[in-house]
Design a protein that fits this description.
about 350 residues, Zincin-like, 17 helices, binds zinc ion
Length: about 350
């Protein structure tokens, strides 16, 4: 049976917060980072934490309230050590060289190497993965990523509206997590792409004649492709695909494509497809089992780390705490947390 849909988490007590702050300090010291770090407790049902560094040198560890309430202290500490590894690789500049996927594998392995509690890290990740959101929690969660519906609006809605708002939250999150069930309808896809910045609104789509509708839908898919990797039906033409890949950073542009011979064209299309496949792979979190295997491997200090390029494996092997360097990096604290999207 689904949990009741009006539940609210009790606010964290000052004591709970103080314990977390003390642990962050302890873990940071183990990483050789004794300078202050802003800590922000974000009201959130997602068992997660996030390290962010702003362009002006302000840095913040965001700890979701559910991570404090749903994890054991050992699990939370291992999780914080994972974030501290992100922080360390931000400071020694190795983060810039990593894909998102590699960054996660690196932070896991470094957490194990420095903090050394692999089983706690695994069970924390497992809890994050297994968490079942209530509808209300899911709406709250999606709002943190930029979906318009907030809890105030949700709580005032009728049961029927609540269902629709929950569905909307799932469709909104589709580019970030998995596809909602059932898959988005064409109209929902248009609406979702519009929320993500595509120009066509649902109203414009509704008013368009049938023939134009399919073109608008195609454009929305084109706009969203680098995030959803889903193609319209019929799929993109080769030329369209070359353009999408180019927008996403592939070097072949349409001018080059149009001038190419037929044989070269097909090579360029294959190149664009491969580029996007790699991009999708690099931008994803490692799958759960891969993460667990990599953490266990790091725990027994295996030489080959799953999910890390040879270059990153070397970085991990060379990872040493330089006390002087760490202490030199003093930063002003900024306790305000920006509103809006937190991805990753
Ligand atoms: Zn991470």
């Amino acid at each position: 049976m689904a949990p009741p849909d009006t539940d609210t988490r009790p606010p964290l007590t000052d004591e709970q917060k103080d314990i977390v702050r003390a642990n962050v300090k302890l873990i940071a010291a183990k990483f050789g980072m004794k300078h202050p770090l802003g800590i922000y407790f974000r009201e959130s049902p997602d068992i997660n934490a996030q390290y962010t560094a702003g362009s002006r040198g302000d840095e913040l560890l965001i700890i979701n309230t559910a991570a404090v309430t749903d994890l054991t202290s050992r699990e939370l500490n291992a999780f914080i050590a994972h974030e501290m590894a992100h922080r360390k690789s931000f400071w020694d500049n190795s983060m810039r060289k990593m894909t998102k996927r590699e960054g996660e594998a690196f932070a896991d392995a470094t957490s194990v190497k420095v903090w050394g509690d692999p089983e706690a890290l695994i069970s924390a990740i497992q809890k994050n993965h297994d968490k079942k959101f209530t509808d209300r929690e899911y709406v709250e969660y999606a709002h943190q990523f930029g979906n318009k519906t907030n809890l105030r609006k949700y709580d005032k809605a009728s049961d029927e509206e609540k269902k629709a708002l929950t569905r909307k939250a799932h469709v909104f999150m589709y580019p970030l997590s998995s596809e909602p069930h059932p898959a988005p309808t064409d109209r929902e896809f248009i609406e979702m792409a519009n929320e993500w910045g595509n120009r066509t609104s649902a109203e414009k789509y509704d008013k368009a004649p049938e023939a134009e509708k399919s073109e608008l839908l195609r454009k929305a898919h084109f706009y969203m492709y680098p995030r959803t990797y889903s193609e319209p039906n019929p799929p993109f033409t080769d030329r369209e695909f070359v353009e999408i890949a180019n927008i996403s950073g592939n070097k072949t542009n349409l001018r080059e494509y149009d001038k190419a011979s037929d044989e070269d064209k097909s090579k360029l299309v294959t190149g664009a497809r491969d580029y996007m496949k790699k991009r999708e792979h690099d931008n994803q979190y490692p799958p759960l089992q891969e993460r667990i295997d990599a953490i266990r491997a790091a725990a027994v200090q295996q030489k080959d780390h799953v999910g890390l390029s040879p270059q990153m494996q070397k970085a991990l092997a060379d990872f040493k705490i330089n006390q002087n360097q760490a202490e030199g990096n003093y930063l002003p604290m900024n306790k305000t947390v920006p509103e809006g999207k937190f991805i990753g």
